[in-house]
Amino acid sequence: MIGEFEDDVRLVLGKLTPQTLAAAVGLLGVPGAVRGFGIVKERNYERSRSLRERYRAELAGKIV
Known about the structure:
- By secondary structure, this protein is an all-alpha fold.
- The protein has one domain.
- It has helices spanning 2-15, 21-29, 38-59.
- It is elongated.
């Protein structure tokens, strides 16, 4: 997850504008939803993946 977060920070830094601010804040907040230990953390991580991809697509300018 650390590598993914680093990738997300790089994406945000390259795409940050007033129009992308909400998606940027949302994307960088996704790891905060991944809580717990063991299988609980794995389940929360899997649930967060679609949200992460949605925010990444918004930042990349793709229609979501």
